[in-house]
Design brief:
Blueprint: H1 6-9, H2 12-22, H3 34-48, E1 57-63, E2 66-72, E3 79-83, H4 97-107, E4 110-114, H5 126-141, E5 146-151, H6 153-164, E6 171-175, H7 187-190, H8 199-210, E7 236-243, H9 247-259, E8 264-273, H10 284-301
Parallel strand pairs: 3-4, 3-5, 5-6, 6-7, 7-8
Antiparallel strand pairs: 1-2, 2-4
Helix pairs in contact: 4-10, 5-6
Length: 309
């Protein structure tokens, strides 16, 4: 059986975005050393950085001993904690700086980006421990409503922290998250060789994340989809990209929450690829993807659920 025809699924604008990213971050980046991967990823992030909307102020400050960056447009009782993507290997406060600034401007909420430790220097459960330590400290500092968000690896951390602090969180927005789904079916198979993220890349990231040891089974800190209890989770919006092996994780996670009586909705953006937050200024579909995310943050921060179910 032939695979998806990406020349049809992906439009010209998105192909131009992919080509622009490849000028800095090559398709075979996982074959580079960790130092090289971080260097080319940082170059790509700098090239796509869109600056801060007017009125957004930032402060770099630690929470729970973890470096963080706070974004505000003025006093707001809601705090959104953001965990960046990068396969647990690359990225930091710089890589998603403009994304966090724009989410702050669009929603009005306080956004705090968390610079958790990266593998291989920090292996599981170290990344989770950093994410949870920052969450605990932020929740003590800002006692108002707390929301969590994250993309890719950061989506994993946002979901994992939610499962261990569900009663303290009022809303969650997950962006093409990796949640430990079944790799023998769905998008894992259909889009195994998709542009931007392939299953071989995911195997590399998993090996580095665990320090080469066998991943734990049934541990929601590692794979939130392997939790046995999905009750009591806060309202959750998941936005994924069609041409991404991780897309089915979003669907499965949504189904697990709704089956347990919770509120969740899953959107799969047609023709988009993993990492497409950066495509928002080059692609009409990328802009629509980001609108989904920003609108979800805004609605949940206001205590609204503008979705069916």
């Amino acid at each position: 059986m032939s695979g998806p025809d990406y020349s049809v699924l992906i439009d010209d604008e998105t192909r131009a975005y992919i080509a622009r990213g490849a000028e800095f971050y090559p398709p075979n980046a996982v074959d580079l050393t960790i130092t090289q991967q971080r260097a080319v990823y940082d170059e790509m992030c700098a090239a796509f950085h869109a600056g801060h909307p007017e009125g957004v102020q930032t402060w770099d400050e630690p929470h729970g001993g973890i470096p963080c960056r706070r974004y505000e447009t003025g006093a707001h009782e809601v705090t959104l904690i953001y965990y960046h993507g990068g396969g647990f290997v690359v990225g930091g406060l710089h890589s998603h700086d403009d994304v966090c600034a724009e989410l702050c401007a669009r929603s009005g909420v306080r956004v705090i980006s968390v610079d958790y430790g990266l593998a291989p220097e920090t292996v599981f459960p170290g990344c989770y421990n950093d994410a949870k330590a920052a969450f605990d400290a932020i929740s003590a500092t800002y006692p108002g409503p707390l929301m969590l968000a994250g993309d890719s690896a950061g989506g994993n951390l946002a979901a994992a922290v939610t499962h261990h602090a569900r009663a303290r969180i009022t809303g969650v927005v997950l962006i093409y998250p990796g949640l430990g789904g079944d790799r023998t079916k769905g998008s894992y198979v259909e889009h195994a060789d998709a542009p931007e993220l392939k299953t071989r890349d995911m195997e590399f990231y998993k090996k580095v994340r665990t320090g080469g040891v066998t991943p734990p089974e049934g541990d929601a800190r590692f794979a939130p989809l392997q939790d046995t209890d999905f009750t009591g989770l806060p309202p959750t919006v998941i936005v994924t990209a069609q041409c991404d092996p991780l897309s089915s994780d979003g669907e499965s996670y949504c189904d697990a929450i709704t089956a347990a009586g919770g509120r969740a909705v899953w959107f799969e953006q047609e023709g988009m690829v993993h990492g497409c937050l950066r495509a928002r200024n080059m692609s009409t579909r990328g802009a629509a993807f980001f609108d989904r995310v920003a609108d979800a943050v805004t609605a949940l921060a206001q205590g609204r659920w503008p979705y069916q179910g």
